[in-house]
Fold each of these.
Amino acid sequence: MNNTIANILRFLILLIVQVTVCQHICLFGYMTPALFLLALFLLPLELPLSLQYLIGFATGFVVDAFAHTLGVSTFACSIVMFVRPYVAHFLNGSNNKFENIDRPVPGVKDFRWVFLYTLILTSVYEILAVMLETMTFKNFGHTLLVILGNIIFTVFVILCIEYIFHPRVKNEA
């Protein structure tokens, strides 16, 4: 129960920060952080898939409502939540789909795992969101620059926040 309350509070805080602050940040004209993705990434992997999809859809819907993007974030967040268990399975390297899948936080997983998990899922979101928003291959170089800038900035901010608020767990042996 305590973990559920912490997840809900983290979720609400990150959504509020996203719609009030992060949407108005645009570094160098290319980089806008999608900080709310952290809330999706830190959800327990043991949640039923249908609940994960619903949370992803609702998160994207809220972001779209404040950003006036007409379903772009809703679609991208839904796809991220669909891909998320497969990315975790791939990074764990286990034969069984749900074997050895823990919470995706720095104290439980090493830096490489957390970095790749964040990078892959952020890339999926940014590619889908930016391509759906532009809906053209005209000026593809600029679009690619925006995608790469958003990925780099978002991954950097998410990793900083994760390592500040999830200190490493010391091995007790």
Amino acid sequence: MAPAGSIACDDHSRIAAAPLHAPVQGRGGTELMARRRLPPGARTRALEVVERLRAEYPAATCALVHESPLQLLVATILSAQCTDERVNLVTPVLFARYPTVEALAGAAQEDLEEVIRSTGFFRMKALAIRQMAQDVVERYGGDVPPRMEDLVTLRGVGRKTANVVLGVGFGVPGLPVDTHVTRLAGRLRLTGSRDAVEIETDICSMVPREEWTNLSLRLILHGRRVCVARSPRCPRCVLNDICPSAELGPLRARPKGGSDGVRRRPQATARKRPTRSPSGS
């Protein structure tokens, strides 16, 4: 990425800007969205997950190469449905041609599309980058704002992208929720929701604020290396003795109305062959 030896920040959310959500704060914070019921044992597991993943992946870094919050913001937009490796091949050319936010804001749509074509969805991404840059120039004097409530008002920027920029670009605690975080949070029963904002709220309510960004990065890396989507490698997982889903095999979303968000995929059973007499009759 959204995936390599370092952590990715790919954004699998829609390119269009997400609506502004209420601020999420946790332990040590002052604001918290309406408290929701958590799965049994979630708080104890969450803190243990933080400790074990910190030991397993001590260096939590973002795989998107960048030199400024603006470059990280652009790279994160480009990483939607695209690997970080591909984005890192495109951004040097992009930033050489458009080195400032003003240059991006004034870029011709067709020219920008051609530069980023290989990242996929290039028309939507080019428009999102241009509109985001225009908003930054017109409303924030050319500086990417370091606050969630401002970032999510930029066209093309949703809450997940904003959390990446805050946590990695500005050092402001944020918990980006991508497909990996969503999957692991469900398997570890840290939440009963599949909604990104609710998952963020649940995890942030259990984990110290200073751990938010690194926990997200480590969950992403663990999801790529061990707790993969189709066949999780439970025997080599450092969380297997505390994970309610360990050794269950492939998991899938529970239909609406399910209680825990994920369930075990039914396992095939061997068909019993009828016995045959030695004569073959």
Amino acid sequence: MDDEIMKIGCFALMEPFTPMRRQFEVIRELGFDYADLTDNHDGSTLGAEYGFAASFSLDEHPATIREMVAEFGLTLTSVCAHGNLLDPASPSRYGTMEIIKAIRLAHHLGVQQVITTEGDPKTGFAEGLSREEKLFSIREKLHEPVRWARELGIDLLLEPHGELTDTVEGMSAILEALGNEDVVGVNLDTGNSWLGGGEPMEFIKAFGPRIKHVHWKDMEEEWVPKRGTKFGCGMGMIPLGDGVVGIRAIVESLLESGFDGPTTLEVAGPENVRKSAERLREWSS
């Protein structure tokens, strides 16, 4: 398999305190053709307006984003819409409406995939929910986004980044509750699934063809004691293959399963990114 099939892109959060345009510029400088639209928000923010936050408004005109991406010869593979699906709905929380907006934006951008997850509880209310209540909360908050995804032909992918999604059992329960197998799929985050106590290889065995995207990150040895107690982390701080997750075996298993979707490096630091991409190309060739 060559790099045209193993689509390797980058998170559009490459340099802190710089605008979105700089993120795409760095991705191109590193030699990548693919990126995702990572951070985003409702309305406007002071940071984005004044150039020190790498975030697009969900209300942005699609042409503005499209032209910026085209300037650097990049292709967007997904729009991230990581929500808070457990705490009570509030204007201050990224939830159902923001996920719907992300789906609409992806449609106008010609991007096939929107990635979401449940996140960690932030309130005593959500922390006190039973497993069944948490499952219902996720189902309720994603009901309308699933309808919009079907209407607009978008794949809505669930990522391991929470107590339920980080295990095969929990992810299976959510997928069963949501139904719509042809619309709802999985984004395998290698670091998150491992950190939350799951096994990435078991995700591949369980979900196979429903895995439409991969977020790559490896984890250092120091994270081992935290397994099963921490659910999700933003970026890996080491190159793929230098940690304890077993990335090479995951690559091989994914390819054996027939995976041919886009992938995204969640790796901090230009040299770590370069080395990670080189290894992915080697392991997938």
